[in-house]
Write a structure and sequence with these properties.
Blueprint lengths: L2 E5 L3 E2 L5 E8 L9 E7 L6 E7 L4 E3 L7 E6 L4 E6 L8 E7 L2 E2 L3 E5 L2
Parallel strand pairs: 2-11
Antiparallel strand pairs: 1-3, 3-8, 4-5, 4-9, 5-6, 7-8, 9-10, 9-11
Length: 113
């Protein structure tokens, strides 16, 4: 059973960089499943795919977020990370990591001064 767990600060100031980590257990980010994704849900809105890193290390980003988004991984820790720069209150959301049918529990990130 693959398990994913998001971690990171719950409050980020405007213009700063949001950084979240997804720790994976029960599977390897280099061999199990192809896409390892970050997805968010702003309050009152639907799910928004932000980007993904593949098992081979290639990255893909939502075009509207590409200039501010970076996804990387630490294979020694079986983790992948999201960095979103120049955040605004519109980036307030619950952030999820995901692969296939497996989801983390989500972590609330609020952008506020």
């Amino acid at each position: 059973q693959v398990q994913l767990q998001e971690s990171g600060p719950g409050l980020v100031k405007p213009s700063q960089t949001l950084s979240l980590t997804c720790t994976v257990s029960g599977g390897s980010i280099t061999t199990n499943f192809y896409y390892w994704s970050w997805i968010r849900q702003p309050p009152g809105k639907g799910l928004e795919w932000m980007g993904a890193i593949t098992s081979s290390g290639s990255t893909y980003y939502r075009p509207s977020l590409k200039s501010r988004t970076s996804i990387s991984r630490d294979t020694s820790k079986n983790q992948f990370t999201l960095q979103l720069s120049s955040v605004t209150p519109d980036d307030t959301a619950v952030y999820y990591c995901n692969t296939a049918q497996y989801w983390g529990q989500g972590t609330q990130v609020t952008v506020s001064s």
